[in-house]
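hiii, so i know i said id send this last week but things got crazy w the move. better late than never?? heres the sequnce for the chain we talked about at the cafe, plus the structure i predicted for it. fair warning i was half asleep when i ran it
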Amino acid sequence: MLGRASALHRFFTGLFPVRLIVVCAAVLHMFLTCCAAYSFDFFWTDEYKAKHPKPANNMPKTMDEYYREVNKAADKSKEIPSPKFEQDEKLVELPDPSILVVKYNDPPGKVEINLNDLKKKRKINSIGVASPQFDRLVYSTVYYYPSTKTAGSELYLMRLDKSKSVQNRMEEAHVNHGRKILYRTEMDSLDLDIQKTLTVVDWSADGKRLAFKEKISYTPDGLWKTNLFVYDFETGKVKELSEVRDAILYYWRANYDIRFKDFRWDIYPVGWDARHPDRIIVFAYAATGENPKFLGAWSVDYKGNRAMLLSPVSTQFDVTQNGSCLKSNYNN
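okay and structure toks below
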């Protein structure tokens, strides 16, 4: 019996250090938990806190505060600092461009649409031509279709704001203010490589009619044919003046037995006749491989009732410049 008590005494005596370790571990865990909860604030000195401040929480608390911050950031992004540039005496000053109002059909019959960038841009606008009264403006647009290698064109009319100065009403003319299609080329042919363009020839002196031409070309062979048209603003109709082409063919066949239907030839509308304001002057040429052969100066009235030969050799005729356009002029 005594031996059993002695054994128990030794067991509990050896167990005591283990229990003491467990208790100490529990106390240490509680201590560390409290320290973490309070972020060791009671260990920080004022000097340490000054050098290691707590991170500020700048997150917006409400939606109104969020939108105010967003608007402040947007306004700040708009403030673009102006670039600093030091003037160099060696730099050459660029002259300031000025826009002038000039006569359109000058020299007569020479204005054409620049189509150099048509295949790249797919759309080219001609220069706008204002009427003699500066109340209307006409221009044409050429569209290119790469799938068929064809081009079509439309002629547009825009009204000008007469409450503004002449130059301002022309500069501020825009398709957003409204436009009307006066004429469009026919594109119902399935042939490839056909291009049709419309170009303004000039307004009549009274502003009631507009002469324009249609050029038809075939890519492999070049220019095929030029057709002359007149748009009558009193009737709202377009008249093709094919009578002048018929008169030219008849004259050379009847007098010289030359059938130009079998050869390449064309007309070149020049403008409205200064002596007869209702008539349009047209030059005609035949392709000879070298210098074109002059087929005469012709005249046709805007209704197409009568086409006549003015001269078989001379091109000296007075043609009016009625329409106006804008031109950029560089002055030193």
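btw The chain is about 25% helix and 35% strand. thought thatd interest u
miss u guys!!
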